[in-house]
Design brief:
Number of helices: 9
Shape: globular
Largest sheet: 8 strands, mixed
Radius of gyration: 21 Å
Strand order of the largest sheet: 4-1-5-7-8-9-12-13
Number of strands: 18
Helix content: 25-40%
Length: 335
């Protein structure tokens, strides 16, 4: 029987109603008590490093979770993290970079309704996660929600209330869970011969900037002293506007010359960026040798940049690491 560590972090799944709205209050042991069926296929220990609405979870907590998993790694066959849905995709992506090539499964889950309600998705999601974490073929960081198993770098919350809140973006689901059975679509355990690798640094000085019509380069000037890198969500397949009193071109040159990162991404959820399609993207990409996120999710792009800049700021090494595929995060990258 598999031995699983349940790591509870708060979120809707553990929340109760207060006069000020839903707030985490159900402990890890109590959560487990709602899914007694797990005893048929695994033994579970519980730990609760913090109890937060996921709106309040950021890099400090991702590092704490990775360190907790590293410390307990030899004692357990798998790990399940219960988490709020709002930043769950960021946590799943961040852990994909902080804990790489794990032969053991690390599963993130949560719910749209608290676990103690008569009608809720919480009990199904938690039980499914424990079941998946108990599978011999399960490995790496995945998100389990609504019966779907999604690679940690490919998950995105696309619905704010529905039970099928998460989708796998630009990549197939890893597996589905139906009626207590796991059906794998992608079975690649053992492809990486190396051992699990843990990382302990993230650069928190990264900004995700969404372009809006009429914005000019002034914004980059104002942000320059506060960030080591900026990921710009451009329109369509990617490009920079050419209007405004302060063009983007000289501001990007200033960032580049100072050794700061400018990475292009797209606001469009599906199919990714391709800056070489239109002049507004091609010219500036070639002039500054800009990198782009291609088919990556924004959550993965942000956390991957944080991870890489936590290891190095050397441009060519950054480019190599960024376009090296980690947990299925990028398909269309450069050689």
């Amino acid at each position: 029987m598999k031995k699983i560590l349940l790591i509870a972090t708060g979120g809707t799944i553990a929340s109760g109603y207060t006069e000020e709205g839903l707030s985490p209050k159900i402990g890890a042991g109590e959560l487990l008590g709602y899914v007694e069926e797990h005893r048929k296929f695994c033994h579970v220990d519980v730990v609760q490093p913090f109890s937060l609405d996921s709106t309040n979870i950021y890099a400090e907590h991702w590092l704490k979770l990775a360190a907790l998993i590293e410390e307990a790694y030899s004692e357990y066959d798998g790990f399940v993290i219960s988490h709020g849905t709002d930043t769950m995709a960021f946590t799943a992506a961040a852990l994909s970079y902080l804990v790489q090539d794990s032969p053991k499964p690390i599963v993130i889950t949560g719910s749209q309704k608290p676990i103690d309600l008569p009608v809720t998705d919480a009990r199904t999601n938690l039980l499914d996660s424990l079941l998946f974490a108990s599978q011999e073929r399960a490995h790496g960081v995945n998100l389990v929600f609504g019966g779907n198993v999604i690679a940690g770098t490919r998950a995105k919350k696309e619905r704010s209330k529905s039970y099928d809140a998460f989708s796998s973006i630009n990549y197939p689901d890893i597996a589905v869970i139906r009626d207590g059975r796991v059906f794998f679509y992608i079975d690649d355990k053992g492809r990486n011969a190396g051992e699990v690798r843990f990382y302990h640094e993230l650069n928190r000085r990264i900004l995700l900037l969404k372009l809006v019509p009429g914005m000019d380069g002034t914004i980059l000037n104002r942000l320059f002293h506060f960030y080591d890198g900026v990921i710009i969500e451009a329109f369509g397949v990617g490009g920079f506007p050419e209007y405004g009193d302060v063009p983007f071109y000289p501001e990007i040159r200033r960032w580049r010359d100072a050794g700061k990162l400018v990475l292009m991404a797209t606001q469009v959820t599906h199919e990714g960026s391709d800056m070489e399609v239109y002049r507004v993207g091609k010219v500036i990409k070639e002039e500054f040798h800009l990198m782009e996120a291609y088919d990556m999710t924004l959550e993965a792009a942000v956390t991957k940049v944080m991870w890489i800049l936590g290891q190095t700021r050397e441009p060519e090494q950054f480019r190599r690491l960024f376009y090296n595929t980690v947990n299925h995060d990028i398909l269309l990258g450069e050689e």
